[in-house]
């Protein structure tokens, strides 16, 4: 309780430092000398290190990529990893996005919750430990990342120069604690097209979706056809036997079909309605059989359809720890030369990438469809009995008076970028996730509560 009292004394200072760092617009920009992610990000890093020095910590700046505040003695260290870069503010703000104004007990602005407020909360947690002279057996580092939103390239740099922490956490997700994060892979499935239909009717283009990790809520296709009525009647007939939101519009020599779906996060495709797959179901009813485009569409109707777990594709992995694989078709781009489908798959934590890749390749054999642009992040998984899991969940429960259970998620957090750490807070259960939204804020009470929790967590791990 001593720590909590100390944090109350530091409250005004913590609020001021949070506002100070929030007032720097730290969106990635063009690189400059010693500013690999641009000027704004570099200023934010300098500001965080300056605040750290004012609080009496040693600091280090690793060539503008990443910096840290350090306290204590010893070989091993506990790491708290946060990030100072933010996503662009976008529109729709009631209060200015880079002024850190306080209204009704909330600090408003880009980065308030993701992730400037929480990393300041951790820094002041360490300050409370220092002011009280609590004995520690390990060093502690508050690590200020600068590229989380656009690739985490700073963490590669950090791990080349420094050894990883022996344990720690990142305040960049939610409470109570995330102990399992699925493996994630994104890739394109591409096929060259030689035939698009017949002289009477052919598909000229298909476009849809914005990001592979979202369920697409829009897809559009242009069909060049001599008798436009054929397509319009086919759509009417199709709509009698389905509930999809599809419409037809005549545009010079084409009939343009628009498919409206429901967006959802790519890790939870079952919560959305896939506009691309709705389009595929309809297009397969047109008299374009024998064409390359028909073969492609029919393949996906047969092997995916509206399944969200990859069952027909042969990749339906599942485990007790993290549930089923999620299978999302997120984007499409088709022109007269080729078709390109963007996919995002998230596989359960006890499997390997090969467990997904091998059956995937098997299903694609002899289809003329190729895999391109593949990226991959391994799963993150700690047993529920692991010391780090137990320590952090106990701190959360002690401080909140709740009985939290660790969570398994389909998303990937910053914890994947650094060995031996887990995502811990800052969003409390039931509170809105305002990351990347207009009018992002952090409640001052939550900022203080985070600081208390992080102070106790650091102390328990480093004592
Ligand atoms: Zn973040």
Keywords:
elongated; 10 helices; 463 residues; binds zinc ion
What's the short version?
The protein has ten helices and 24 strands. It has helices spanning 2-22, 39-54, 112-131, 153-161, 228-240, 275-283, 292-303, 353-364, 387-400, 444-462, and strands at residues 58-62, 66-71, 77-83, 102-103, 106-108, 139-145, 167-170, 173-174, 178-181, 183-192, 201-208, 218-225, 245-251, 254-260, 318-319, 323-324, 326-334, 338-347, 370-377, 380-381, 407-409, 421-423, 426-427, 441-443. The site of zinc ion has 5 residues, from helix 3.
Structure description:
The protein has 463 residues and is α+β, with helices and mostly antiparallel strands. It has helices spanning 2-22, 39-54, 112-131, 153-161, 228-240, 275-283, 292-303, 353-364, 387-400, 444-462; strands spanning 58-62, 66-71, 77-83, 102-103, 106-108, 139-145, 167-170, 173-174, 178-181, 183-192, 201-208, 218-225, 245-251, 254-260, 318-319, 323-324, 326-334, 338-347, 370-377, 380-381, 407-409, 421-423, 426-427, 441-443. The protein has an 8-stranded antiparallel sheet with strand order 13-14-12-11-17-18-10-19. Helix 1 crosses helix 10 (444-462). The model has no long low-confidence stretch (mean pLDDT 96). The protein binds zinc ion (ZN). Zinc ion binds next to helix 3.
């Amino acid at each position: 309780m001593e720590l909590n009292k100390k944090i109350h004394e530091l409250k005004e200072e913590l609020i001021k430092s949070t506002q100070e760092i929030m007032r720097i617009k730290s969106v990635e920009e063009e690189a400059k000398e010693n500013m690999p992610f641009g000027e704004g990000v570099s200023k934010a890093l300098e500001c965080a290190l300056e605040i750290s020095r004012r609080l009496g910590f040693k600091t280090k700046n690793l060539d503008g990529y990443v910096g840290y505040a350090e306290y204590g003695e010893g070989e091993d260290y506990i790491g708290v990893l946060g990030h100072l870069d933010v996503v662009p503010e976008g529109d729709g703000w009631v209060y200015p996005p880079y002024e850190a104004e306080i209204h009704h007990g909330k600090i408003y602005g880009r980065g308030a919750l993701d992730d400037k407020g929480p990393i300041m909360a951790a820094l002041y947690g360490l300050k409370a430990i220092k002011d009280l002279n609590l004995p520690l057996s390990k060093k502690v580092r508050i690590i200020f990342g600068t590229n989380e939103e656009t690739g985490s390239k700073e963490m590669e740099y950090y791990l080349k120069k420094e050894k990883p922490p022996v344990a720690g956490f990142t305040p960049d997700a939610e409470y109570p604690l995330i102990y399992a994060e699925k493996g994630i892979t994104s890739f394109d499935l591409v096929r060259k097209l030689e035939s698009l239909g017949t002289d009477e009717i052919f598909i000229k283009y298909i476009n849809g979706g914005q990001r592979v990790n979202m369920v697409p809520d829009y897809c559009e296709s242009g069909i060049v056809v001599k008798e436009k009525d054929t397509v319009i009647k086919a759509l009417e007939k199709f709509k009698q036997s389905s509930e999809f939101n599809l419409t037809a519009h005549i545009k010079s020599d084409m009939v343009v079909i628009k498919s409206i779906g429901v967006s959802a996060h790519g890790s939870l495709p079952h919560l959305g309605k896939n506009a691309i797959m709705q389009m595929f179901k309809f297009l397969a009813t047109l008299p374009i059989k024998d064409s390359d485009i028909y073969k492609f569409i029919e393949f996906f109707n047969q092997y995916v359809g509206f399944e969200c777990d990859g069952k027909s594709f042969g990749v339906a992995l599942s485990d007790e720890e993290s549930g089923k694989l999620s299978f999302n078709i997120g984007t499409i781009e088709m022109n007269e030369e080729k078709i390109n489908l963007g996919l995002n798959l998230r596989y359960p934590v006890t499997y390997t990438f090969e467990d997904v890749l091998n059956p995937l390749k098997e299903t694609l054999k002899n289809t003329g469809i190729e895999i391109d642009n593949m990226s991959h992040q391994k799963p993150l998984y700690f047993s529920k009995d692991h010391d780090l899991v137990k320590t952090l969940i106990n701190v959360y429960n002690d401080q909140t008076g709740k009985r939290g259970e660790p969570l398994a998620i389909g998303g990937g957090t910053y914890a994947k970028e650094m060995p031996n750490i887990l995502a811990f807070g800052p969003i409390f259960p039931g509170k809105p996730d305002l990351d990347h939204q207009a009018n992002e804020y952090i409640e001052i009470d939550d900022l203080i509560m985070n600081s208390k929790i992080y102070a106790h967590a650091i102390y328990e791990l480093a004592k």
